[in-house]
Every structure is written in structure tokens, then in C-alpha cells.
Amino acid sequence: KETKKSAAKKASKKNATTTAAQAKKLRTQLEGLEKTEALVRSIMDGGLGSLNGAMLETCRNLAKELENHYLPGPRRLIRRLVLDAEAREARGDDQANARMLGTLEKLWALIRKSRQYLEEKLAGGVVERDASPLFEELGGVWKFSELEELGLTRENVRLVQLAFWVRQDDAREEFVDTACWADLDKGGIVMTYGYRPFALKKRLKEEDSTFGVAHAPKIVCYPGEGNPRVRWESADIQPVSEADRQRLRELAAPALAPEVKAAKDLLKNPLFEPPLFRLLRFARIGKVGESFVLVDPQGDTILLEDMPGLEGSISSELAGSTAWLPLLPDATLWEDQCLLGAIWHDAAAGRMKMQPLSIVTDTAIARLLY
Questions:
Q1: Element (H, E) at 78
Q2: Cα separation values, 357 from 116, 191, 271, 317, Å
Q3: Which three-class secondary structure state does DSSP give residue 294?
Q4: Under 8 Å between Cβ of 284 and 137
Q5: Residue 276 burial by Cβ neighbours in a 10 Å radius (0-12, 13-18, 19+)
Q6: Which end of the chain is more exposed for a tag (fewer CB within 10 A), N or C?
Q7: Distance between CA 73 and CA 203 in Å, rounded?
Q8: What is the mean pLDDT of the chain?
Q9: 47-81 per-position pLDDT tens digit
Q10: Angle 53-65/72-91 helices, nearest 10 degrees?
């Protein structure tokens, strides 16, 4: 009996210590958010023109300091501000101001929502994990088992990869290996991401394209809006069959307008990171002047253009994917097919656009970004 009492007492003391450590971390994060808010207010008071010289150095210093406050999300956004301000100064980037305004809006929303999230945790006794998308923004790293415990799982899932690219994210200081997968069972497009810090470039192997159907016994889904991020521990890769391609065409959205509306609705949340990936049916792809345009079966149109930052890993005039359209080997690919597109908003032009990533036919999947 004494042994059991002693063990229970030790466990209670350990839990109290853990809770105290968690509370200390949350308070440290709140202090970092206060400093970030003060910076944002200074920038807003001075205008975007103030983002140079001493103000830029202040931003750089705070980004470094936020590492000690367990705030990777705010740190990433501050670094993005710095990079865009430097691009504006060095190259006269005429779209930098629009990007910086968008980043400031995200940063302000992240500060506000994170403060509420952390204060609620402190008031509730510091719960370590929940299904909030803010968990990762505030330094959390999901384990497969933790997502399982939250019930964010599916079993016996079949996925077809339709696009793959590698992006160098200077704000994150990481390479991001990204893939779009079509869900053959439930429909929709899900994502996988592999993050490789610059400092570990030589030690971590870059992921590669998968040309087949991944049969995964179990996948976990990360919290978030838009295209869900998924992950699996093992999968059997099988060839894409004619039935699989037919299934993809059945799953493709029949009209453009509802998908564009869905993208616009997501953009109302400042924390949403565009684009929205959708598989769409189209009547034809044509040209208006030098621009490519997609026409859906209802006659609605959208401009096809690469989204900045989604160009892929090819460094040439054919970087991205739209430039590959004229090189498609078969003219039938331009009519009555299905297209995986990335729907995004061009703030400078004030309109929605779409980047084409792959075209699905009865006989093939033509990948423009692979």
C-alpha cells in the first residue's frame, strides 16, 4: 500500500511539474505575441514605406528572438515581410506591396487568434494538444499516433498523385516537397508535404513523384481548411488502371463557378494559405491574345496563369506549368477533359486565376508539374 501511495504521489508531482512547465511556455508565447503586435502596429502606423532601414533590422531581430518564444508561425510571416521588402528595394518588385499587405493581414489575424487560444489553455489548466490548426503555428509537431488519438484517421484509402513539385521557402528556411493526390474513394484533392530544413539539405533525401495508385491501410488527416494534409506510414503502389482514370473523371467538378466561390470563401479567413486545388471538367482550353483561358461545360471562363511561388523546381523559361500547355503532344487534350487546377487570387490584377497542373483523359494522365 505504501508503495502504491508513493507511486501515486510521484505521478501527481510529475503532472504538476509538467503543467507548470507548459504554463510557463504559454506565457513565454504570449510575451512573444505582444512584441509581434507592437511591431505590426508600428508598421501600420508608418505605412509600408517604413519597411526599410532601421525598421527592417527590427523585423530581422524580432524574427530571431521569436525562436525563443516557440512561435514559428509569426516568425515565418515576419521573415516573409522582410524578404518582400528586400525584393521591392532590390528589384523594384511592383507586386511586393500587395504581398506585404496580405502578410500583415495574416500576421494580425494570427496574433489575435493565437492570443485567445493560449489564454483559453492557461485558464483551462493547459491542455497539451487539440485539433486546432494553431497547434503547429505555435510550435507543435504532430506525431502519427497523436492524430490517431484525436480520431483524424481513415482506413483503406486509394490515392492517385496528380502533381508534384519542390519549393524553396526562404521564409520557413526549408525546402518543401509537395504533392497533390486525388482521393478515389471520397473524392477531393488531398496534400502531402515533406519539410527539409536548409541546414539538413545534404542529410535529408528529396521526395520524388509517384506514378501510380497508393493503397494505404491507414492515413491520418491534419487539422485545417481547404485541401487536407494527409500522411501514411506505408502504402502499396499499383499501376493506374483505366477504371481509376474513369473514376477520376467521374469525381471531377462539373462547373467552375462553385469551385471559384469555394476558393473565395476560404480567402475570407486570413490564415488560409492559397491556392485551393480542384479537379474540374472543361469544355476546352483556348487563347485570348497571349493568355490561356479555360472554358467549362457551362461556358464560364478563368484565366490560366502560374501562381507566384508555385513554379516548381525547373529554372528556365518553362518553369511552372502553364508554359507547357502548347507542348502537349495531342490536341485532344485541349477539349472535353478534366484538369487539376490551383485556384488563386491575383491581388495586383484583382481577379481569380488558375494554374493548370495536370490533365486527365480516359487513356492517360498528362502532368504539367511533376
A1: helix 72-91
A2: 38, 14, 24, 17
A3: strand
A4: no
A5: buried
A6: N
A7: 25
A8: 90
A9: 998 999 999 999 999 999 999 999 999 999 999 99
A10: 150
Whether the CB-CB separation of 206 and 196 falls below 8 Å is answered with yes
Mean of pLDDT values over 183-189: 95
- List b or e across 19-41, with b for residues whose CB sees 16 or more CB atoms inside 10 angstroms: eeebeebbeebbebbeebbebbe
Closest CA to 56 of 68, 45, 43: 43
CB 361 within 8 A of CB 245: yes
Closest CA to 354 of 340, 344, 339: 344
Q: Please give the grid coordinates belonging to residue 263.
A: 476558393
Question: What's the chain's length in residues?
Answer: 370
Number of H helices, E strands in the chain: 8, 12
Q: Which of 357, 302, 309, 304 has its CA nearest to residue 103? A: 309
- For 206-218, the pLDDT digits (tens) are 888 999 999 999 9
CA-based nearest residue to 105, from 140, 132, 141, 80: 80
C-alpha cell at 294: 479555360
Handedness of CA 280, 282, 286, 289 (dihedral sign): negative
Whether the Cβ atoms of residue 284 and residue 332 lie closer than 8 Å to each other: no
**338-to-40, 110, 256, 314, 343 alpha-carbon distances in Å:** 43, 36, 12, 25, 15
Q: Which three cell numbers stand for residue 92?
A: 523594384
Distance between CA atoms of 210 and 296, rounded to whole angstroms?
A: 29
